[in-house]
Amino acid sequence: MKTARHLLPILFLAFLAFSACNAPGTSTQDGSEEQVDAPPASGFDEVPEHAIDAEVYTVYARFMEFYMGDSPHYVFEDQDGKQWDFADCDAKDCDFAMEVPPEHANEENLGWVSNPIHLAQWFELTYYEMEGQLNPDGPTGKMKVIHAYTPAP
User: Fold this and answer.
1) Do 91 and 103 touch, CB atoms closer than 8 A?
2) 62, 122 in Cβ contact below 8 A?
């Protein structure tokens, strides 16, 4: 019985060491490194296939306006006064823009206006960049797309 009590801690430590050696992200028996799937960045279920790369970015900014020019523009301003112009918002329930009734649509607003609830409100925006057509008749280039947002406290 005395020997069994002394062996129990040794067996437990051996079990822990064996478990740690086979944990993801450690070397395997042949010396190769196992791949570990990193959790997605904050606010992302996964990076969309059309993103330029797997990089995601975050900016803290307030909503200034939405307007439809040749393409949609979600305009924000950060704490340093830098303007951020996003080409799209694919966040779930994105409501920075709102469609106006047909009788209020005109050539200036093209049927869309800023949602007044969000004007001048601060948000943490998570976005990615994609390659796309900058306007219907223009060249392609890098565009920023809002993928997730949370109101600032």
Assistant:
1) no
2) yes
Using the structure block, give the residue that is written with the tokens 């890098």. Answer: 142
Asked if 27 and 42 count as a contact pair (C-beta separation under 8 A), the reply is no
- Enter the pTM of the model: 0.65
The three-point CA angle 52-78-38 to 5° equals 40
Q: How wide is the angle at C-alpha 94 spanned by C-alphas 89 and 98, nearest 5°?
A: 100
Nearest residue to 123 via CA among 63, 57, 40, 48 = 63
Taking the C-alpha atoms of residue 88 and residue 146, their distance in angstroms, rounded to an integer, is 6
Task: State the first-to-last Cα distance of the chain, in angstroms, to the nearest integer.
Answer: 61
Query: CA-CA-CA-CA torsion for 40, 44, 47, 51, nearest 10 degrees?
Result: -140
Residues 26-71 have pLDDT tens digits of: 344 444 433 333 333 344 456 666 566 667 899 999 999 999 988 8
